[in-house]
Amino acid sequence: MSSAPHPTGAAQRADAASEPLSRAGRLAVLVAAFASLVFDGFELGLMPVASLSVSQDLLGAAYTPTLGGDWFARFTAALMLGAAVGGIALGSLGDRLGRTRALGISVLCYSAFAGVGALVTTQEQMLVLRFLVGLGVGGVWPNAVALVAECWPDKARPTVAGLLGAAINAGILLLSQLARLWPITAESWRWLFWLAAVPALLGVLVLVALPESPQWLAAHRGAANATSGGGQGQGEPRERAGSSPLRDVLRPPLLRLTIVGILLGSIPLVGAWAASKWMIPWADKVGGAALAGYKAQTQGWWALGAILGSFTGAQIAAWLGRRRAYFLISLGATVLTVAMFQLTAPLRPSFLPTVFAQGFVATLFFGWLPLYLPELFPTRVRAAGSGISYNVGRFATAGGVLLAGWLFTALGGSYPTVGAVAALVYALGMLAIWWAPDTAGRKVGAG
Fold it and tell me: Which H or E run includes 213?
């Protein structure tokens, strides 16, 4: 509680806002966070399905299938680098200025720069814009996850974490269905980027209308009181002079937790982008000539499995325990990704069912992470810690994608070989998880 006996004005509003949210307020937070992540997924899925068409148009007569695959790797790496920077910077901003402000800024960022992509005339322009889109893409995840985790009761967290995990893949599924209705070709792709600008409206609504996390308001007020000698807030430790959320998670005693979080967040991201995503340009190369919508159909099957997997991941973690679940997911993702690239191929009857199964298992991670990462860090650094854990992995992902792109070229443009080799990164999860603390039972959400 504040030490002032008669708070007025802004202080009264802050006190009122720091009370637990009503059911309507919690639902508004969940819907806004879910929608932000849906459009986040739309942005993430955009270039895998559009990259070859964009390159064919912008490169003209210079285009070759191998060069198209190389540019796909570059676009992906640029997005991942932007997401890594944005996740760290905007995650830290969420701890300083509030979850909703940082979330709204992130949505506006990815929407505006995606829309500008409709105007590009060169590959290099698109490359820069993919980095700028990535800034917003990276900022959404830590702030949405922290906001929902702090506004919902702990008993509901496996369900809401599953919903947030599924949201990104729901956006990818939405994109795939639009691309099936209106095929993306070298002559017709710019409309997709104009459409990707529409979520800016959501960003404005988040900034002006969404309630802030009561836990963040309480911790923020407690830190201000501690700085002025007014005491500590809600059991949070007094912050050291000159401290910041970003610095705090990068030094003891939180540094070990941050390293663990980075490792666990990096493995599924590198696996997804350096290995799994090659299936879509592969499907485009093999099946695109006969079926213009085959790449979108492939992405749709994967996204459908991914929605179910990313929702189920949190439930499995709650049922089996955090560490055992991560181990088994890593094992399954390794086996199915290698099988997808080595035991089947586009246009074979077994290909799309295998894509569905791989999408389900490999995205169980993304239901597990929204449940586990907020449990790893205290309120005052939760968005920064979750943001670093999830998004530093995107630096590794950018490097992994570029390495996979080099390998793709060195192997003469063999999609199944590069996909199978890169899939082995999932196996590292079976070792890494035993360094992680068991967080089951830790309280995070509202009472």
Answer: none
49: in domain: yes
pLDDT single digits (tens) 323-335: 999 999 999 999 9
Give one DSSP letter per residue of 48-87, joined into a string.
Answer: HHHHHHHHHHHHGGG--HHHHHHHHHHHHHHHHHHHHHHH
Q: Are 145 and 373 in contact (CB under 8 A)?
A: yes
Task: Indicate which CATH number applies to the domain containing 47.
Answer: 1.20.1250.20
**Residue where the block lists tokens 């490097």:** 399
Domain that holds residue 392: 22-208+245-435
Determine phi and psi for 446, rounding to 5 degrees: -65, 155
**In the chain, how many domains are there?**
1
**Residue 4 placed within a domain:** no
| Contact indicator for 355, 303 with CB cutoff of 8 Å | no
Non-local CB neighbours of 90 within 8 Å, separated by 6+ positions: 102, 105, 106, 135, 136, 138, 139, 142, 143, 387
- Show Cβ contacts of residue 72 under 8 Å, excluding neighbours closer than 6 positions: 47, 48, 51, 52, 55, 281, 405
Three-class secondary structure of residue 430 per DSSP: helix
DSSP bridge pairs for 153: 446
Distance CA 305, CA 128 (A): 31
The residue ranges of DSSP E strands in 92-225, in sequence order, are none
Please state, in angstroms and as integers, the Cα–Cα distance from residue 131 to each residue in 138, 281, 291, following that order: 10, 21, 31
User: Which residue in the block uniquely carries the two structure tokens 């369900």?
Assistant: 159
Which residues, other chains included, contact 191 with Cβ-Cβ below 8 Å and sequence gap of 6+?
A: 118, 182
Q: What is the pLDDT of residues 349-400, one digit of tens each?
A: 999 999 999 999 999 998 898 888 888 888 788 878 887 887 777 788 788 8
Q: Would residue 441 count as lying in a domain?
A: no
Query: For the purposes of burial, counting CB atoms within 10 Å of the CB of 388, is it exposed (0-12), middle (13-18) or buried (19 or more)?
Result: buried
Residue 229 lies in a domain: no
